[in-house]
Amino acid sequence: MNPFTTAMLAWQTSMVFTLRSMELWAEPTRAQAKLTEYAFEKQRAFAAGAVAASQAALAGHHPQAVVNAALRPAHRRVRANARKLLKT
């Protein structure tokens, strides 16, 4: 993973966290349902990453390729969340 990709992930993650936190503060009555939705979203990304990493490792790929496979679902989810939050 190159430094630019890592920096973008860090920036997008902090932006998504901040914007989602502001949404939760603005609508506290919906916060519990939203937090549950966010937790499931993270579980799905983690599970997809674990499966992808396992498949890459079993296929005999280089360790960096295994790490990239593990992180790819989280990267996609964060990018999608950032795009969605910036549109609204």
Residue windows where pLDDT falls under 50 for at least 5 positions: none
Percentage of residues assigned to helices: over 70%
Number of strands: 0
Dominant shape: elongated
Q: Structural class, from secondary structure content?
A: mainly alpha
Treating each run of at least 4 consecutive H or I residues as one helix, how many helices? 3
Radius of gyration: 15 Å
Q: Major sheet, described briefly?
A: none
Strand content is under 5%
Order of secondary-structure elements: HHH
Mean pLDDT across the residues is 94
The CA-CA distance between the termini, in Å, is 30 Å
Short description:
With 88 residues, the protein is an all-alpha fold. It is built from three helices and no strands.
Task: Write the topology of this structure.
Elements: H1 3-26, H2 31-58, H3 63-87
Helix pairs in contact: 1-3, 2-3
Account of the 3D structure:
- The protein is an all-alpha fold.
- It has one domain (3-87).
- Helix content is 88%, strand content 0%.
- The chain has 3 helices and no strands.
- The chain has helices spanning 3-26, 31-58, 63-87.
- α1 (3-26) packs parallel to α3 and α2 runs antiparallel to α3.
- The longest helix has 28 residues, at 31-58.
- The mean pLDDT is 94.
Question: Which short descriptors sum up this protein?
Answer:
88 residues; mainly alpha
